[in-house]
């Protein structure tokens, strides 16, 4: 397997930066969004802002994983490219767990 090109390294770096920005901005958007609406849906725009940015971060993590597969097996870059995808999967599992727990307590 040949070494990745400079273009692939630049793409990987840009995708990592985009993932960090989207992941971090999800928490910022949740914290700074003013709850709107009334009654049952009050504050739902905060949750949708958070989940929207986490969705973007999840899509970028899939691209990171795919680009990371181009590096040699066992390499640090290849292992590091799995981290964003693992974090996205943990988010999905946590959200599903919260939904199932909420349904079970009703």
Can you describe this structure?
The protein is mainly alpha-helical and 106 residues long. The protein has four helices and no strands. The protein has helices spanning 6-32, 44-68, 76-80, 83-104. Helix 1 packs antiparallel against helix 2. It is elongated, with a radius of gyration of 17 Å. The mean pLDDT is 90.
Give a brief rundown of this model.
This protein has 106 residues and is mainly α. 75% of the residues lie in helices and 0% in strands. It is built from 4 helices and no strands.
List its salient traits.
elongated; 106 residues; 4 helices
Mean pLDDT: 90
Q: Shape, please? A: elongated
Number of DSSP helices?
Answer: 4
Query: How far is the first residue's CA from the last residue's CA?
Result: 55 Å
Tell me the Rg in angstroms: 17 Å
Helix/strand-derived category reads mainly alpha
Q: Which regions are unreliable across 5 or more consecutive residues at pLDDT < 50? A: none
Helical residue percent band: over 70%
Order of helices and strands: HHHH
Biggest β-sheet strands, sense, barrel: none
Number of strands: 0
- Beta strand %: under 5%
Topology (SSEs and partners):
Elements: H1 6-32, H2 44-68, H3 76-80, H4 83-104
């Amino acid at each position: 397997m040949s070494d990745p090109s400079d273009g692939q390294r630049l793409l990987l770096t840009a995708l990592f930066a985009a993932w960090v920005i989207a992941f971090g901005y999800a928490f910022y958007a949740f914290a700074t969004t003013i709850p709107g609406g009334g009654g049952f849906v009050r504050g739902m725009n905060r949750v949708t802002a958070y989940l929207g940015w986490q969705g973007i971060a999840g899509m970028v993590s899939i691209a990171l994983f795919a680009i990371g597969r181009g590096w040699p097996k066992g390499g640090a870059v290849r292992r590091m490219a799995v981290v964003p995808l693992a974090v996205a999967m943990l988010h999905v599992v946590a959200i599903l767990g919260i939904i199932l727990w909420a349904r079970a307590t009703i």
